[in-house]
Amino acid sequence: MNANGRTRVHLLVAAAIALLAAGPLGLGDGPVAEAKEAAQGKSKKTKQQFECRLQRPQKFLKRRTFVKKGMLDPKQHARAVRYLVEQYGHVETDETRRYNPESAHSQAKAVRFMGLPVSIHEKIAPALHCVEKRIRATCSSKSRRYTPRAVGGFRTANSYRGAEISNHLFGIAIDIDPDRNPCCGCVDPWPTSPLCQEKNRTAYERAALSRCWIKAFERYGFDWLGHDDLEDTMHFEFLGDPDRFIVNKKKKK
Fold it and tell me: Cα separation of 234 and 146, whole Å?
C-alpha cells in the first residue's frame, strides 16, 4: 500500500472511532418461534417473555422508499418519521414532539452484542438478541465467521444532511466496524476507502461482514443499508414491528 493509501486508511479509522463515540455507549411473515427467552422489564414486578419470530423490514420505512436518486420524497419520509416517533419517541425537535412527548433517548438500554457494549432503544433489544443467537448458531464456519471490534448504536447528533433523520437518533440502528465495512455513498472520508474505488465489486464484496451475518439481521426485521444507494455496509436498522417479539408480561409470584 502506498503513502496515499495508508493515509486514507488512517483517516477512515480515526473517523470510525469518532463516529462510534458520538453516541452513548430466508425470511417470512408467519408467527414462527425459534426460541423463547425471558427478559427483565423496567419494573421489578414484571418479566417480559419474547420469542424470536421471523419478520421482514417494513417497506415504507426503508430509506430507498423515500430517497431515490438522491432526492427526498417529503410525504413518504414524513410518514416513516411519524411512525418511528410514535413507536420509539421524539428526537428533540418540536416537530417530533408533536407525536410523542417521550424522547427516544430516555428509553436507551445498554446491552452487549457479540461481547461488545452498545446503547440501543430498549424495544429492539429482543430483536438484537435474536440476531446474536442466530449468528452464534449458524455463522461459525471459516467462510461465515466474523469477529467485530466496535459497535455503535444510539447517537444524539443527526448524521444526515438536510431534512432526513438518521435512525441512530431513535436507537434502532447499529454500525459494525466502520473501518472494515465502508459506506461508499456517504460523505468524506468514507468514499476514499480503497474498497470503494473498485467499481466492479458488489456491496457484499466490499464488506468484511459475511453474508451469514447480514442474513441473520435480515431474518429478524433489520434492513442492511448495503442494499441502499449509500452502500452503507456497516449499517443495520430495525424496521420491523418490535411488538411482534413480545408474548406477554407475567407478574412475579
Answer: 13
Residue 63 near residue 228, CB atoms below 8 Å: yes
Helix spans in 43-113 (H): 63-66, 74-88, 94-97
What are the grid coordinates assigned to 238, written together? Answer: 430495525
**1 Cα distance to chain centroid:** 32
Output the pTM of the full model.
Answer: 0.81
Residue 66 contacts residue 78 (beta carbons within 8 Å): no
3-state secondary structure 85-99: HHHHCECCCHHHHCC
Distance CA 48, CA 39 (A): 5
Cell of 149: 471490534
The number of angstroms, rounded, from the C-alpha of 117 to the middle of its chain's C-alpha atoms is 14
- Please state the φ and ψ torsions of residue 175, each to the nearest 5 degrees: -115, 135
Closest CA to 125 of 188, 208, 40: 40
The residue type at 219? R
Other C-beta atoms closer than 10 Å to the C-beta of 249 total 12
Encode the chain (253 residues) as per-residue pLDDT tens digits. Answer: 444 444 443 443 344 434 443 433 332 333 333 334 444 444 455 567 889 999 999 999 999 999 998 899 999 999 999 999 999 999 999 999 999 999 999 999 999 999 999 999 999 999 999 999 999 999 999 999 999 999 999 998 887 767 899 999 999 999 999 999 999 998 888 888 888 988 888 999 999 999 999 999 999 999 999 999 999 999 999 999 999 998 875 544 4
Q: How far, CA to CA in Å, does 184 sit from each of 24, 90, 190, 207, 224?
A: 25, 29, 6, 11, 14
